[in-house]
Every structure is written in structure tokens, then in C-alpha cells.
Design a protein that fits this description.
It is a single chain. This protein folds into 2 domains: about 160 residues, Creatinase/prolidase N-terminal domain (Creatine Amidinohydrolase, Chain A, domain 1, 3-Layer(aba) Sandwich), CATH 3.40.350; about 290 residues, Creatine Amidinohydrolase. It is about 40% helix and about 15% strand. The longest helix is centred in the middle third of the chain and has 24 residues. It starts with a helix and ends with a helix. The model has no long low-confidence stretch (mean pLDDT about 95).
């Protein structure tokens, strides 16, 4: 964790932004896999981490703005716990680490909140996403389950987003570290790719690297020769020459910060002409982002440029037709790239997505597009220094989507369906980097990860 002063300053800023009421934070608890004492890897709630830095279960916290008081709620470990876990810090010691002056038993939280409500004060909370905390909120605040999401505090959500969206120097340092772990993950997959090996072998090696240097993966590894399935977590195939392998994977640092990279490369180590032609279009879309992404630019416009590059490239190959700029604005390239250019990255791999994408990636200056593809963009708003976003264009040939669009005659003026059908079975290509917006432009985080054709072939080549 960072210094206690970091967390104290963050909480002061949050209090100033919200203004009044009681801010409630619920930490995450252990989650059993198949019986109570056999749990999944523990992961603290990211907002609790950001404002308190404590990565332990059975904790809650209150920032009472009206009374200018902060309280950490929790219970000291018993000797039964210590026998199995070793000696553990007391609640008072944990509070001191993050600069909180007051502590109380967890059971006292309900009475504290009830007293605040009875006094007519607002209890602010963030949208819950875990069932145990939904149940707890229901009990603490006497709210019906179906109202928990809608009753979350817009004032608190907006304040948290405004603080977390711009990363500090110490956060960027953590991001550099975890991006370097992500680079090593991908290099291991490139070096290990060989016909006859199982996909799960490479996925296992990549995940092992994250456990060696950090806290594990930031999301389940996507590693598949069926790259046309955007989030394919099946690792059951044998690698084959002639096929492309898409690897979308990232690491999580001990501090909780995440990385997220994607690379696509031929199993054989050599691109075919057809593969290279499609790959170079995606690479151009990826690289043009770095010339466009800077403070004051809407990320939607950068996304639209990626669509235009894809439309232009596919038109040159005969898969699309007509004016590429018009096709991009209309959303025709969504047949090949049905997702947005990128998302915010930080303590979450899709940073703050639990608060709602419309709070995180949109604001009063830009609303989500109703157009398929454009509407999938997770971050569209104006870029600021300190934003960390992903840059991940792709081209995919998804048979069922092609079938539906062709049957409906969608964008027939822009799409050459007979030519597109020649690519069914090609798979998909995505190239993703982690990008920090600086005062004057942007830069990549982490060590360089090969993405040019010659560089990939040099790493993978036999």
C-alpha cells in the first residue's frame, strides 16, 4: 500500500466533492469455491483499496462528512484464526496504516447507519456487485434488493470517478511495473507457441508468470486460435500451423493495479499473405491512436478513426466498398470490429466499470451512440493527463454475425459479402496496448512488446 498520507488526502478530496452525509464503503469478503474454507483468491474491492489501502476481508468503513469523522469497522482475529493464518494485525493497527483515527466492531456498523438515517442524513454508497454485500446493504439500510442499484449515490459515484480517472505519479509507477509483468506473459506465449502443443499449456505458463511477480491475472486469460470469439476462455485446442493465435491477457500487481495486452500471431511463426494483409490494417489502426490520443481529444473520435482505417484497408482488399469515411460513421465496420477502441485501466482491468460505463466513459458532453459498434465503446469522453486507456482495434470474421447481416442486407452499399465469405474460418486479430495520456500527448506503459510483423516473426520464428 501507499503511505497513509496518500489515503488521507484521497478521502479529504472525496469529502470535499460530495459535501455532506455519510459515505459507506464495504470491503469484499472471502468467497468459497466448493466449501466454506476452500476459497477463491481474495480480491479486495477496488474503491476500498483506493481510499483505505487495506486488502483484508470482513472490513467496512465510514467517512462521516457532517461530523468530520472516519471509522474503520472490523473485528480482531481470534486465536482460532491465528492458528491457521499466523499472527494478524489488530483493527487499530490496520486503521493506523491508512490514517483512520477511529475503529469499532463490525456489529456496530448497523447502529451507526441507523442513527444517521433517523437524523435525516444521507448515507451514500456505491453500486454493490457481490451478492453477500447486496444482502448486507439490504440489512443495513432496509432497502429492497431491487432498489440497491438505483439507490446508489450519483454524487458519490461522480466524485469517485473524478478522483480515480486521473492517475497520480505513484499509481503510474505501479502501472509500469504491472505492465512489465504483462509483457513477460505475452513473450512466454510467443516463445512457447508451437504446433502440437495445447492452448492450455501456454495459458498456464502465462498465468504462472503473473503469480511469480504479482497477484495473478487481472482477468481470466484469453488464448485461442478462434480469435473471432472476442472473449474466448476455452483453451482446449491443439495448436496448428496455418492458424493465428490470439492472446489477450494481463497481470495484477500486489497493489491491485492491472495491465491488459493483446497480441495475435501465427502459430507457425510466419504470416501468410492473407494474414499479413489483415494484420497490417489492425496494426495501422493501433498505431494511429498514438498520433491522435492527447488531452482535449475525445476518445470517441480516436475510435472513429480506427473504424475509418479499418474501412479503408478492407476496401483496398475488396471486402468493403464505397466511401470509407461514410462507412465508418454509419457503423459498417462493426461487422468486423463489433467492440470499441478501448476502456479505462487502473485498479480494475475495466476501470470502475462496477460504477457503470456511462459514469466512467461518458459525461454530460458526450452520450453513448445508439449505433452498433460505436455504442460498445467503453470510454468515449475527452482525454485528460493521467488517463490510462487501452488501444485495442481488431478485425474478426464472425460467421453468425456475417450470416445475419447478409440476410438482412445491412450496409450492402459498403460490404462485399461474397468476398467476406472467403474469410470465414480466418479467425480474428486484435492488437492491444496500455496508453498513458500525458500533458502533451500519450505514451506506452511498460517495456516494448513486439507487434510489427518482422518483430513478431523474430520472436516466434523457429
Amino acid at each position: 500500500m501507499f503511505s497513509k498520507e496518500t489515503y488521507q488526502q484521497r478521502r479529504i478530496q472525496l469529502k470535499n466533492k460530495v459535501g455532506k452525509g455519510v459515505l459507506l464503503f464495504l470491503g469484499n469478503n472471502e468467497a468459497p469455491m466448493n466449501y466454506p474454507s476452500n476459497t477463491y483468491r481474495y480480491r479486495q474491492d477496488s474503491h476500498f483499496l483506493y481510499f483505505f489501502g487495506l486488502s483484508l476481508d470482513r472490513l467496512a468503513a465510514v467517512i462521516d462528512i457532517d461530523e468530520d469523522k472516519e471509522i474503520l469497522f472490523g473485528d480482531d482475529y481470534t486465536i482460532d484464526d491465528i492458528i491457521w493464518m499466523g499472527d494478524q494485525p489488530s483493527i487499530a493497527e490496520l486503521a493506523a496504516r491508512c490514517g483512520v483515527a477511529h475503529t469499532a466492531a463490525f456489529a456496530e456498523l448497523a447502529a451507526y447507519l441507523q442513527k444517521a438515517q433517523q437524523a435525516g442524513r444521507t448515507v451514500h454508497f456505491l453500486p454493490p456487485y457481490r451478492d453477500d454485500n447486496k444482502l448486507l446493504l439490504h440489512q443495513l439500510l432496509q432497502l429492497p434488493f431491487e432498489q440497491l442499484k438505483s439507490a446508489a449515490s450519483p454524487e458519490m459515484i461522480r466524485a469517485v470517478v473524478s478522483l480515480r480517472e486521473c492517475k497520480s505519479a505513484e499509481e503510474i509507477e505501479e502501472m509500469e511495473k504491472v505492465c512489465n509483468i504483462g509483457v513477460e506473459m505475452h513473450l512466454s506465449a510467443m516463445r512457447g507457441a508451437k504446433a502440437g502443443r495445447m492452448e492450455r499449456e501456454l495459458a498456464g505458463v502465462a498465468e504462472g508468470i503473473t503469480l511469480s511477480y504479482g497477484s495473478g491475472v487481472s482477468f481470466p486469460v484469453i488464448l485461442s486460435q478462434n480469435g473471432e470469439t472476442l472473449h474466448n476462455h476455452n483453451h482446449g485446442q491443439v495448436l496448428e500451423n496455418g492458424r493465428m493465435l490470439l492472446v489477450d491477457a494481463g497481470a495484477e500487481a500486489v497493489s491491485g493495479y492491472s495491465s491488459d495486452y493483446t497480441r495475435t500471431f501465427p502459430v507457425s511463426g510466419k504470416f501468410t499473405q492473407k494474414q499479413r494483409e489483415i494484420y497490417e490494417i489492425v496494426l495501422q489502426a493501433n498505431e494511429e491512436t498514438f498520433t491522435l490520443a492527447k488531452p482535449g481529444v475525445r476518445y470517441f473520435d480516436v475510435h472513429l478513426n480506427a473504424y475509418t482505417v479499418i474501412a479503408r484497408g478492407l476496401t483496398a482488399l475488396g471486402l468493403m466498398k464505397g466511401n470509407p469515411e461514410d462507412a465508418a460513421k454509419a457503423g459498417a465496420p462493426a461487422l468486423f470490429m463489433p467492440h470499441g477502441l478501448g476502456h479505462m485501466l487502473g485498479l480494475d482491468v475495466h476501470d470502475m466499470e462496477d460504477l457503470g460505463e456511462n459514469y466512467v466513459g461518458y459525461d454530460e458532453t458526450i452520450r453513448r451512440s445508439p449505433i452498433f459498434g460505436h455504442g460498445s465503446l467503453r470510454c468515449a469522453k475527452t482525454l485528460k493527463p493521467g488517463f490510462i486507456v487501452t488501444d485495442e482495434p481488431g478485425i474478426y470474421f464472425i460467421p453468425k454475425l456475417i450470416d445475419i447481416w447478409e440476410k438482412e442486407g445491412r450496409f450492402a452499399e459498403y460490404i462485399n459479402y461474397p468476398k467476406v465469405r472467403e474469410y470465414i474460418g480466418f479467425g480474428g486479430i486484435r492488437i492491444e496496448d496500455d496508453v498513458l495520456i500525458t500533458e502533451t500527448g500519450c505514451r506506452l506503459l511498460g517495456k516494448p512488446l513486439p507487434k510489427k510483423v518482422a518483430d513478431l516473426e523474430a520472436v516466434i520464428g523457429r
